[in-house]
Amino acid sequence: MARTAEHIINLASLSAVKGSDSSGRRAAALTRFAGEVVSIASLLAPAEPHQSTLSCRRRPKRRPCRGYLVLTRVEHDDDIRWDCPICGDGGLITQWHESRWDQEPALRSGQVVSLLQVRAQRDHRRKALQPTRAHELQVDLIGGPIDLEQTIARRLRIGGDQTLHDLHLLLKCAFNRKEDEPYEFMFGAPYELALRRWARGPRGAR
Description:
The chain is an alpha+beta fold.
């Protein structure tokens, strides 16, 4: 999928825009979107893509995009990047530090312990909150249509409440793959046909 035009949101300037006209309403909607992204991405380690449960905001051909956003904190300047692996929407959020959505102070003080807790706070749930487990994966690219002269690896982090399809989308983003091809996960030693497996093709999972 080709990437759409890049968006840059200065959260400090945007959140200061007020008004009930069309410009004010658009600024309020963008502020809500950016705030949701920051409330999750401010907890991430730099340069580690995270497959979130935030739905893409675009409506290609007037229909909601079915993608979920991949969030990354840019290592060299600590901006926050979002990408949709389905429609190619993406952009940067700048000037987010010390905003009301910045979770870093709560993380350092121990008030926030997981992305699950952030989502519950964002949704105003009052029930008791439990930590969720995160899995850190070392992924090596071992083959492809061209010969690899050196190892290509990525370090990924994904929540324990995510699905294998979420992992597939995260892998696509991490290795900058755009095409929508069938894929398969095998559990255990590779290439043993009797092993448990999970696959998804044009007709869905099997």
